[in-house]
Design goal:
The chain is mainly alpha-helical. The chain has 2 domains: 63 residues, no CATH class; 34 residues, no CATH class. The chain is 56% helix and 0% strand. The protein is elongated and about 95 Å long.
Length: 123
């Protein structure tokens, strides 16, 4: 009796688990809206190309195959976007400008380097 009960429970619980990973052609509008929110890049372009191919597919099997590729590239693009968003901004370097005693610094009369916007010319 217990074995029968366990078997029935398993039969009712397994199909919804597989349905969660199911890709259908009706998900094309959702995929397009997700891609519109991603930053431009090679993975986003690849995902958009596969989505366009899924829109033009002649069969459900071909459409689902293209949507799986869209999912692959969209996940990679989203991960790259997340990684770039969490990266620390580059540190700006503080430049010591010329003054009356240090004319060899940017903005001074003895300075022989690239021009610096933040330093005004001091004579």
């Amino acid at each position: 009796m217990r074995a029968l009960f366990v078997l029935v429970v398993i039969l009712f619980l397994i199909p919804p688990a597989f349905a969660a990973d199911r890709v259908e052609c009706s998900q094309i509008p959702h995929a397009q809206s997700f891609l519109n929110g991603l930053k431009p890049g090679p993975n986003t372009r690849a995902a958009q190309g596969h989505l366009n191919a899924a829109k033009k597919a002649r069969s459900d099997k071909q459409c689902v195959a293209e949507l799986k590729k869209v999912d692959f590239y969209a996940r990679r693009s989203a991960a790259a976007d997340k990684k770039s968003a969490s990266a620390a901004p580059p540190r700006t370097r503080q430049v010591q400008c010329a003054d009356a005693m240090h004319q060899d610094r940017p903005g001074g009369s003895d300075y022989r380097g690239p021009p610096t916007r933040s330093c005004k010319r001091v004579l």
